[in-house]
């Protein structure tokens, strides 16, 4: 099968929506095969031929659900971002807490986000794809914007006199700092994780603090 370059925009929904149990199982098996390839060999090894071979399926089956490998990356990338974002709901965010308590929560959130990414099969390769492939960029950016908006609401609850655009700018910068530290830890083993997480958490808190 011939792979084409990534389109400017991607359709994340399946070409044909799997409705029956067997169709859903087939759809998930293609996603699982892609994750295994990403985990074992990285983004460069992913193509539709490799996916169907790993899944024990055929090319027509692949194209029944996905236009190309970029479409499957879009689905998996979205699932990873949603798993990361779910970490926000695991611990209540209260910007009126004492600075020390906020720092503890921020460390926990960064640590949990790193854990989610590492345990999501193929997570590192997906993070790379969300930056390297232009058509996947909106998935990453919309996820970061969602987190920044969530944090902005919490800031304004605690400090209603702050202008919303200023609060959002602070929170969006904090989000980017946090994710940058996570990506750095995924890419290198030469730094002490807890020390990096602590310093990143302090930087995040300093940016958000009114």
Q: Please tell me how large the radius of gyration is.
A: 19 Å
Overall 3D geometry? Answer: elongated
**Structural class by sheet pairing and helices:** mainly alpha
Tell me the distance between the termini.
55 Å
Poorly predicted segments: 1-8
Mean of the pLDDT scores?
Answer: 91
The main β sheet shows up as: none
How many distinct helices? 9
Helix content: over 70%
| DSSP summary, beta strand count | 0
SSE string, helices as H and strands as E: HHHHHHHHH
Note the beta-strand portion.
Answer: under 5%
Helices and strands in order:
Elements: H1 21-41, H2 48-55, H3 59-65, H4 69-86, H5 99-119, H6 123-132, H7 137-158, H8 164-187, H9 193-208
